[in-house]
Amino acid sequence: MTRRFTAHLWREGDLWVAQCLEVDVASQGETEEEALANLKEALELLFEPPSPSRIPHVRTVEVELGPAA
């Protein structure tokens, strides 16, 4: 599946910053193209399905609550 995102680019010192406007992700690079490529990689990693290295151990916790004040 392919999805389009909008990137805002600006220069900050010696680097270019690329920020995705739809998702709170940003990256940087020495050129505009590098910043965009790094942003693309960051977005791909963000939306990559998780693959746990260990099976999570899930438990329930029972808590006794006092009367409402």
TrEMBL record:
Name of the protein this chain belongs to: Type II toxin-antitoxin system HicB family antitoxin
UniProt keyword annotations, A-Z: Plasmid
Source species: Thermus aquaticus (strain ATCC BAA-2747 / Y51MC23)
Pfam families found in the cross-reference section: DUF7387
